[in-house]
Amino acid sequence: MAAVDELTILWAQWDPADYLQEIGNMYEAETGIKVTVVQEPWESFLTLFNSEMAAQGTSYDMVVGDSQWLGANATRGNYIELTDFMNENNLTDSVTPATLQYYGEYEPGSGTYWAYPTEGDANGWAYRKDLFEDPEEMAAFEAEYGYPLAPPETMEQLMDIAKFFTRPDEGLYGAAIYTQTNYDALVMGFQNMLFSFGADWSDENFNPEGVINSPEAVAALEFYGELYACCQPPGMSNAFFAEVNDAMISGQAAMGMNYYAFFPALSNPEVNPYADVTGYFINPAGPGGEQFAALGGQGISVISHID
Q1: pTM of the full predicted structure?
Q2: Is residue 307 part of a domain?
């Protein structure tokens, strides 16, 4: 095998890819092997990768792909199996079990790995502390809803607060949520409610019938739809992370759903004029007390078509 003097990694265009490039630069300084992280916008990331795999292209040595790509690319021969490599180098012990299972393993429960967890993430919420802690707002909210205004602990409270702060005449809306259909943003946003309402996509045998259309799943979808209809800022019918952050930065939203990887922008006063009064809370619990958040993040895979 010829000596490797350069590695090219494909990933989506976002801050974690910049951080990976920094690590690549450190790797180059230590080994002399140049690492280039090619970033593609999220909306065309999957299309570009699929086209490359269909052509059995060699433009990229590795890809940091979404977990839902694992099955297709493993069975189509696009990924190199990494099980022995990861076990022999104790890499399976270097990450949390959830990321190993959901970012790297296929088939589920098989102990066979096609990716190494690279960016672990989950959905959470940002909120405007200056609004929540304003004495007049607190008094008005408690008078209307009968309990103190605070970051919501339940989905019912989330809806109450979103409706309370939705004031179109003031240019203020209760909650900015994911709605983009170009890729998987809408699905990921909905999952926050789906799981917390006690529902799932399928049973343990991966049968969706009677599960994704269960009463709990329907209630979760109706809740998400109501939250969008009542309280989403205008112009956000196809929104993902950038649009949610923009709604918070512009002062349009009292609360915003997003992955933790995107929250640093909200804590940066050079970007967000409300940085000093922005707080964060975890995804609230559903009607039965179950509390989950949509898992995000990706694993890095080695492409089989490389020379």
Answers
A1: 0.87
A2: no
